[in-house]
Amino acid sequence: MSSNKEQALRFPMSMPSQRWIWPVSLTLSLMMAAPSQAQSLSSQSVMHPRTTTFKIAAQSNSIAQMEKQVLRQINAQRQRHGLSPLQLNRHLSRIARSHSQQMASQNFYSHIDRQGRNHRRRVEASGLSAYMIGENLMKCIRAGDPAGLSVSSWMKSPAHRKNVLLPQMTETGVGIWRQGETVYVTQLYMEPK
């Protein structure tokens, strides 16, 4: 399995200021796992202190609307390509939101969190079990429409686009966190067991 590298893109705005976005995808980290390799954790494990951050609520009503906008636009892309829409999994959204919040508060931008967990380990630590798990990230600075910018950028990137259009994926979670003028967007994709 080869590793993907982060891509940095710079898009000029029509106004004098600049907006920066960084889309990140872990296409090959969709980590297909045989049923015996992906193990569910007991419900007691979900209450472990490391996973209690997965209960995080939307940062604000406007951020919650932004999360819904990402889901609507992603599903429009899937339907445009003859695929079924992804179903919202609120638990996945809390995991995605927690990761966005951690990136914002701890000033990092990566699929690997500060505890050394990738998206598969974060999802499985929460008690969910899946055959395939994918994740797209976006970091937007001074963007007028972070949700729309995220989706359009992901669709222009082959690795991100692959995550969005994988027919095996049936569930998703979107989590967004704003820190000053920076917005962190995390979308998880899952083929549940």
Quickly describe the structure.
35% of the residues lie in helices and 24% in strands. It has 193 residues and is of the alpha+beta class.
**Number of helical segments with 4 or more residues:** 6
The SSE order reads EEHHEHHEHHEE
The portion of residues assigned to helices is 25-40%
Secondary structural class: alpha+beta
Strand content: 15-25%
**Cα separation of the termini:** 23 Å
Shape: globular
DSSP E strands, number? 6
Stretches where pLDDT is under 50 for at least 5 consecutive residues are 1-22, 24-53
Folded structure, characterized:
The chain has helices at residues 43-46, 61-80, 90-106, 119-125, 146-156, 158-165, and strands at residues 9-12, 18-25, 87-88, 130-141, 171-179, 182-192. It is globular and about 40 Å long. Residues 1-22 and 24-53 have low confidence and may be disordered. The chain contains six helices and six strands. A six-stranded mixed sheet has the order 1-2-4-6-5-3, with helices on both faces. The protein is an alpha+beta fold and 193 residues long.
